[in-house]
């Protein structure tokens, strides 16, 4: 039976709503951002729900204070606002504080990459992976479908420390029909190839799978879904990549600006893995054109056709 695609946020919020009936230590804080399931949380648990309004800096400080009182806190807002509008508060009240006090704060950012496509660059989010992974004690998760997003709930409540959950605002096709990926590894191998592996996160996993299928049997391409951007199992990932000549990173964020590609350049160097890395991300600066997500992706070099051309040329270059 095919699993019906659902919004990432709704699946996680439903898990939170159910758990709040059993665990009086779960608290929810919103920055004037709603959903039908959030209405249920507010109605059923009014003493453990706060809407701070359009005030993300307050959102972070209130969440930190609740966490110091022993609550497991979920804070919820649009991705660019919950990461960039309040970055100093995140750094001081969450990242620094968590070094000296045990806290559990989970930031849910909805609107990864171009998923708020018609809202333009003010509401799109290409910098968050760079910013959030810059803090060494922050956990950063980037799911590719709602099944993975829902599975993150257990990680949120069981592991202390500050976390950022990067959710897509659109309903994406289901990738994990049977079971979610093993979050202890932080990544999932979808297919093993021979010479080149595509390592993607979030929405870009859908592009990676499509491109790998288009390569066909002539160039058997591997695909890995990187869910945990900060704390994946380095030993296991090094083992998975050991047989490849080339690695292609795909992210819906700026290329060469400290995101997943920078993390992988560092990883390959520290592990002394002799792979050539092709980093594919958003090229250029901010754009104000209107269009579909697919059209915008092609314009900035991360659409399926653009990626297909770059990967084919990359494979060819490894032959020389």
General description of the model:
- Keywords: Thiamine pyrophosphate.
- The protein is of the alpha/beta class.
- The chain is globular and about 65 Å long.
- The strands form two sheets. The protein has a six-stranded parallel sheet, with helices on both faces. The chain has a five-stranded mixed sheet with strand order 7-9-8-10-11, with helices on both faces.
- α3 (56-68) packs parallel to α5 (87-96).
- It is built from twelve helices and eleven strands.
- 38% of the residues lie in helices and 20% in strands.
Q: What is the count of β-strands?
A: 11
Shape: globular
Beta-strand content: 15-25%
Strand order of the largest sheet: 2-1-3-4-6-5
> Structural class from helices and strands?
alpha/beta
State the major sheet. 6 strands, parallel
Which oligomeric state applies? single chain
What's the overall average pLDDT, rounded? 95
Give the helix tally. Answer: 12
| Low-pLDDT windows of residues | none
Distance between the termini: 46 Å
> Helix and strand succession?
HEHEHEHHEHEHEEEHEHEHEHH
Roughly how many Å is the radius of gyration? 19 Å
DSSP helix fraction = 25-40%
């Amino acid at each position: 039976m095919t699993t019906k695609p659902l919004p990432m946020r709704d699946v996680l919020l439903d898990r939170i709503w159910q758990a709040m009936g059993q665990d009086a230590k779960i608290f929810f804080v919103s920055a004037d951002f709603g959903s039908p399931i959030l209405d249920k949380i507010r109605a059923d648990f009014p003493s453990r729900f706060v809407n701070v309004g359009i005030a993300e800096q307050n959102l972070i400080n209130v969440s930190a204070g609740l966490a110091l009182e022993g609550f497991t806190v979920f804070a919820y807002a649009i991705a660019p606002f919950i990461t960039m509008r309040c970055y100093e508060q995140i750094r001081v009240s969450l990242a620094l504080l968590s070094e000296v006090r045990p806290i559990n704060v989970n930031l849910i950012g909805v609107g990864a990459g171009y998923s708020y496509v018609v809202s333009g660059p003010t509401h799109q989010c290409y910098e968050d992976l760079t910013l959030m992974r810059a803090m060494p004690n922050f956990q950063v998760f980037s799911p590719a479908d709602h099944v993975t997003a829902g599975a993150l709930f257990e990680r949120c409540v069981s592991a202390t420390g500050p976390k950022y959950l990067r959710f897509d605002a659109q309903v994406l096709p289901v990738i994990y029909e049977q079971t979610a990926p093993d979050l202890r590894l932080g990544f999932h191998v979808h297919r093993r190839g021979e010479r080149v592996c595509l390592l993607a996160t979030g929405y870009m996993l859908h592009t990676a799978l499509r491109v790998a299928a288009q390569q066909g049997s002539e160039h058997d391409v591997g695909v890995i879904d990187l869910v945990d951007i900060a704390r994946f199992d380095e030993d296991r990932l090094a083992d998975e990549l050991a047989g490849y000549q080339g690695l292609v990173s795909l992210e819906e964020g700026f290329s060469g600006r400290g995101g997943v590609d920078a993390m992988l350049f560092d990883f390959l160097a520290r592990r002394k893995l002799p792979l050539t890395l092709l980093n594919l991300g958003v090229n250029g600066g901010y754009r104000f054109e209107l269009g579909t997500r697919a059209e915008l992706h092609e314009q900035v070099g991360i659409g399926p056709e653009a990626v297909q051309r770059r990967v084919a040329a990359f494979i060819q270059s490894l032959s020389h």
